[in-house]
Amino acid sequence: MSRPLPVTLVAGFLGAGKTTLLNRLLAGASPLRVGVLQNERGFAGIDDAPVAARARVEIAEGCACCVRNPDLVNAVRELSGRGDLDWLLFEAS
What is the maximum span of the chain, computed from C-alpha positions, in angstroms? Predict the structure, then answer.
């Protein structure tokens, strides 16, 4: 049986510094293997995600706040099912 994948949700208003925080967390020296899930609504999508992330998935134009969002559920299943991640950072739009 696989172990649960810890998730940290980074949320805030537009321009609050969510992406800056994410970049700084990933730039730090850490032995953790981190996956990044981004809920993007603008032009700066997954291409601008930090390269330190081991895996990245973007939910474009979706509402991650809805528990029944199939894109969100599928993205989390994809990342957690890999088995090679220690931590998931979820940046909400």
Answer: 40
Q: Determine the Cα–Cα distance for residues 55 and 78; give it in Å rounded to an integer.
A: 10
By CB atoms closer than 10 A (0-12, 13-18, 19+), residue 54 is middle
- 8 A C-beta contact, residue 93 and residue 62: no
Bridge-partner residues for 56, per DSSP?
A: 36
**Lookup: tokens for 70:** 């199939």
CA distance 64 to 67: 7
Give dist(CA 14, CA 53) in Å, integer: 22
Other Cβ atoms less than 10 A from the Cβ of 15: the count is 8
pLDDT digits (tens, 9 = 90+) for 5-64: 899 998 888 889 888 888 888 887 788 888 888 876 655 544 455 555 556 777 765 566
Terminal Cα distance for the chain, rounded: 32
